[in-house]
Design brief:
Blueprint lengths: L4 E8 L5 H17 L3 E4 L6 H9 L2 E4 L11 E3 L7 H8 L4 E3 L3 H15 L3 E5 L5 H7 L7 E4 L2 H6 L8 E5 L5 H14 L13 H14 L4 E5 L5 H12 L4 E5 L15 E6 L5 H14 L1 E8 L11 H4 L7
Parallel strand pairs: 1-11, 1-12, 2-3, 2-4, 4-5, 6-7, 6-8, 9-10, 9-11
Helix pairs in contact: 4-5, 8-9
The structure holds buta-2,3-dien-1-yl trihydrogen diphosphate and iron/sulfur cluster.
């Protein structure tokens, strides 16, 4: 029996970004340097496959610092941590390595600078997400007000409308954020902020490549985890760009083949925390069911790389 034909558009850039690559390397190098167990506060990046792999190598994942014994190294995840976390690690004289993405740290520094200039901050982000918690936690309680949707702007109670600044989460939808920034600027003309927002290059590029394929596909599959903000945004961007069926899948076994019956084309992308092996697994699953032609749709090239912290590049001075 011959298989039905299928065009598979593979978006690029997709998958690992420089911050994720660095964060995973940090855990691997810490395991090499200090041996197991190395503790990691929060999933190093939001991907079960990555986390399970590192756990197999000796990483222990916890949610809070007080779950880490004082005599073992601890790594803070790529999403960033409130200031109180490294402060507490230092107080306990722990060995810690901060795997916060440099592009998240940049937003932390921005917030700090505006605060020192006496400005109150508005953060555009998702409540409860670790990056939002970490960024808001750079400043004293109450100094950062959170807005999630344009409607929140009207409800803001600010100290002084003339002395405000805004910052954003790095993994938001570029288009949705424009609307929130416009609402902020309309209500607070004096508000200062970044040129556009603080969304990172990887988030921006992955959304752009989804838009490039959305118009010509019957279905879009985004490989990523349900707690991965940037991956979930790719599903939304696909739908907003006209793709009727857009679904987040962790790996090939999550694919709802019934929903895909009769499709002639599919788009595949992956969030910044999803490893390429899972992309290949999904492509292979399509090849098993369809006579698949793969076409790469590349809308940008990425050459960003971040160094790991110096402590991991130096030889071990003394064992712990
Ligand atoms: O999926 P991630 O671990 O995180 P979010 O998209 O949920 O923020 O991807 C890495 C991004 C960062 C920081
Ligand atoms: Fe850094 Fe962006 Fe990757 Fe997050 S998605 S780790 S901010 S490069």
């Amino acid at each position: 029996m011959s298989l039905p034909p299928l065009m598979l558009y593979l978006a690029a850039p997709r998958g690992f970004c420089a911050g994720v690559d660095r964060a995973i390397k940090i855990v691997e190098m810490a395991l090499q340097k200090w041996g197991a167990p190395v503790y990691v506060r929060h999933e190093i990046v939001h991907n079960k496959f990555v986390v399970d792999n590192l756990r197999d190598k000796g990483a222990v994942f916890v949610e809070e610092l007080d779950e880490v014994p004082g005599d073992r190294p601890v790594i803070f995840s790529a999403h960033g941590v409130p200031k109180a976390v490294p402060a507490e690690a230092a107080r306990r004289e722990m060995v810690y390595v901060d795997a916060t993405c440099p592009l998240v740290s940049k937003v932390h520094i921005e917030a700090e600078r505006h605060h020192q200039d006496g400005l109150q901050m508005v953060m555009i982000g998702h409540a409860g997400h670790p990056e939002t918690i970490g960024t808001m936690g750079q400043l004293p309680e109450g100094e950062v007000l959170l807005v999630e949707v344009p409607e929140d702007v009207a409800m803001l109670e600010v100290r002084d409308p003339e002395r405000l600044a805004f910052i954003t989460q790095t993994t938001l939808s570029v288009d949705d954020t424009v609307a929130i920034v416009e609402a902020l600027r309309a209500r607070f003309p004096a508000i200062v902020g970044p040129h556009k927002e603080d969304i990172c290059y990887a988030t921006t590029n992955r959304q752009m490549s989804v838009k490039a394929i959305a118009g010509r596909i019957d279905a879009l599959l985004v490989i990523g985890a349900p707690n991965s903000s940037n991956s979930k945004r790719l599903v939304e961007v696909g739908k907003a760009a006209g793709c009727a069926y857009a679904q987040l899948v962790q790996r090939a076994t999550d694919i709802d083949w019934r929903a895909l019956e009769g499709i002639r084309s599919v788009g595949i992308t992956a969030g910044a925390s999803a490893p390429e092996v899972l992309v290949n697994e999904v492509i292979d699953a399509f090849r098993a069911r369809f006579d698949t032609t793969v076409e790469l749709v590349e809308t940008a090239q990425e050459r960003v790389e971040f160094k790991v912290p110096r402590v991991l590049r130096e030889p071990l001075q003394h064992s712990i």
